[in-house]
Amino acid sequence: MKKRSRGTDRLIAFFITGAMVLIILAILMGSYFFGFIGFVRVMGVEYESYWAICLFLLFIFIFGSITELFSKALIF
User: Fold this and answer.
1) How many CB atoms lie within 10 A of CB 40?
2) Taken in order 45, 48, 50, 54, is the CA torsion positive or negative?
3) What does the pLDDT read at residue 2?
4) What's the predicted TM-score (pTM) here?
5) How far is the C-alpha of 65 from the C-alpha of 62, rounded, in Å?
6) Rounded Cα–Cα distance for residues 51 and 70 (Å)
7) Are the C-beta atoms of 34 and 53 separated by less than 8 Å?
């Protein structure tokens, strides 16, 4: 039986770690997205498509990140 090299072991570990990170991010983003859709439905708001909600959440995330950076700079 052939022994695997250290490079192969590191490559396998890298891909497994990357896959785990991607799966965790997908679960977090999915729960945020579907949670927001549930909130919108409870509030009775109508929207045209899921892409409209995706764009809305993307713009809110970008705007919130920029606003938070400036607010943190003003505090310190």
Assistant:
1) 14
2) negative
3) 64
4) 0.65
5) 5
6) 29
7) no
Q: Who contacts 46 (Cβ-Cβ below 8 Å, separation ≥6)?
A: none
Residues 42, 46, 52, CA angle at the centre, nearest 5°? 110
Q: Report the C-alpha gap between 64 and 68 in whole angstroms.
A: 6
The one-digit pLDDT tens for each residue of the chain (76 residues) are 566 677 788 999 999 999 999 999 999 999 999 999 999 999 998 888 889 999 999 999 999 999 998 888 888 7
| Spatial distance between the Cα atoms of 56 and 49, rounded to a whole number of angstroms | 11
| CA 41 vs CA 5, 28, 36, 75: distances in Å | 54, 20, 9, 37
Tokens of 23: 């799966």
Residue 39 tokens read as 């909130």
